[in-house]
From TrEMBL, chain A:
Topology in membrane: Multi-pass membrane protein
EC primary class: translocase
Descriptive protein name: NADH-quinone oxidoreductase subunit J
Subcellular compartments: Cell membrane
A Gene Ontology term for the protein's cellular component: plasma membrane
Function: NDH-1 shuttles electrons from NADH, via FMN and iron-sulfur (Fe-S) centers, to quinones in the respiratory chain. Couples the redox reaction to proton translocation (for every two electrons transferred, four hydrogen ions are translocated across the cytoplasmic membrane), and thus conserves the redox energy in a proton gradient.
Keyword entries, A-Z: Cell membrane, Membrane, NAD, Quinone, Transmembrane, Transmembrane helix
Database matches in InterPro entries: NADH_UbQ/plastoQ_OxRdtase_su6, Nuo/plastoQ_OxRdtase_6_NuoJ
The keyword Methyltransferase is assigned to this record: no
Annotated family: Belongs to the complex I subunit 6 family.
Organism: Schwartzia succinivorans DSM 10502
Transmembrane segments: 32-50, 57-74, 80-101, 122-142, 164-186
Domain of life: Bacteria
From TrEMBL, chain B:
Top-rank taxon, per record: Bacteria
Biological function: NDH-1 shuttles electrons from NADH, via FMN and iron-sulfur (Fe-S) centers, to quinones in the respiratory chain. The immediate electron acceptor for the enzyme in this species is believed to be a menaquinone. Couples the redox reaction to proton translocation (for every two electrons transferred, four hydrogen ions are translocated across the cytoplasmic membrane), and thus conserves the redox energy in a proton gradient.
Family: Belongs to the complex I subunit 4L family.
Single GO MF annotation: NADH dehydrogenase (quinone) (non-electrogenic) activity
UniProt-listed GO biological process terms: ATP synthesis coupled electron transport
Organism: Schwartzia succinivorans DSM 10502
UniProt gene name: nuoK
Enzyme category, top tier: translocase
Signal sequence coordinates: none
UniProt name for this protein: NADH-quinone oxidoreductase subunit K
Pfam families for the chain: Oxidored_q2 (PF00420)
Keyword annotations of the record: Cell membrane, Membrane, NAD, Quinone, Translocase, Transmembrane, Transmembrane helix, Transport
Length: 192, 119
């Protein structure tokens, strides 16, 4: 009887300790993170495993939107907005357009994968990569401290137009070159 | 270095509830591995491009997470993510233009058939 009481006491103490270390804010924080994480990871798995390439493209958009929500979770609303506009908007539409322009006869089996042997090799390589990175990041003790940085849009604009003005201009030129290059490649330079 | 073999259940529960930098690094590693698997197994050009986009996204998560959870004084990480997104956007535009061109010339978007430059 005494031992049973001691066991119950231990369990209750464990529960109290656990409950003390958590509060509603932390729990809500964690559940938001895990919900967004599962959205982006499951959608990414769908991209890789779907047989129909149109489904893959739509799931890719879902994964992008999940990642964009994670940026907003990390107090980076500007990057989140850029992610929604560029990835969730432009890249998704580009990919779906390209799928429509290069259509095959049978959409249901349009997303072919290689042989089973090749798939096993790819699974081993990517699994080993994931294992390496996760062990490295679990073993490293980061000195975490969320610094108060203020408004991210103002800060980014200041940096873009002062210290990082040259990369900013180079990125603008790169986008222009990419646009002209894409037009020339898709249309054909010698055709009128 | 953290001793991961002597952790109790309470520690693990605590760790999994207090979201920190490590969680984001693990998420990014998972997304990158999924993209890598797709890159190695898909046979079409456009599915391959989609997997490259997934991997670029994972790298961007790392940049923003380090900027948020490390004691930094400015937004350099987020700025790098903006530039990375710009480069990724131009990469996908060029890649899709190439895919379209190859489809028009060959009538196929299977990478295994693109072996004209093989020696």
């Amino acid at each position: 009887m005494n031992e049973l009481l001691k066991l119950v006491h231990g369990v209750v103490n464990w529960g109290m300790d656990t409950a003390e270390s958590m509060n509603a804010g932390v729990l809500i924080d964690a559940s938001v993170f895990y919900a967004l994480m599962w959205v982006s990871v499951l959608a990414a798995l769908g991209v890789v495993l779907c047989r129909n390439v149109v489904h893959s493209a739509l799931l890719l958009t879902a994964s992008f939107i999940g990642v964009g929500c994670l940026y907003i979770y990390m107090d980076s609303p500007f990057i989140g907005a850029v992610q929604f506009l560029v990835y969730g908007g432009a890249v998704a539409i580009l990919i779906v357009m390209a799928l429509m322009l290069t259509r095959r006869d049978d959409m249901a089996h349009s997303n072919l994968s290689r042989s089973l042997f090749c798939q096993a090799g790819a699974a081993v390589i990517s699994g080993a990569f994931f294992l390496c990175i996760s062990v490295a990041s679990l073993m490293t003790q980061f000195r975490e401290m969320s610094a108060e940085l203020g408004d991210s849009v103002t800060g980014l604009a200041d940096m873009m137009l002062t210290k990082y003005i040259l990369p900013f201009e180079v990125a603008a030129v790169l986008l222009l070159i990419a646009m002209i290059g894409a037009l020339v490649i898709a249309k054909g330079a010698h055709e009128s | 270095m953290m001793d991961i073999f002597s952790l109790s259940a309470v520690d693990i529960l605590n760790w999994s509830v207090h979201i920190g930098l490590t969680h984001f690094l693990l998420l990014a590693a998972l997304l990158f591995s999924i993209g890598l698997y797709g890159l190695l197994t898909r046979r079409g050009i456009i599915p391959t491009l989609m997997c490259v986009e997934l991997m670029l996204n994972a790298a961007n998560i790392n940049l923003v997470a380090f900027n948020h959870y490390r004691p930094v004084t400015d937004f350099s990480g987020q700025l790098m993510a903006v530039f990375s997104i710009a480069v990724a956007a131009s990469e996908v535009a060029i890649g899709i233009a190439l895919a379209f061109r190859i489809y028009r010339e060959r009538g196929s978007v299977n990478i295994d058939e693109l072996n004209h430059m093989k020696g």
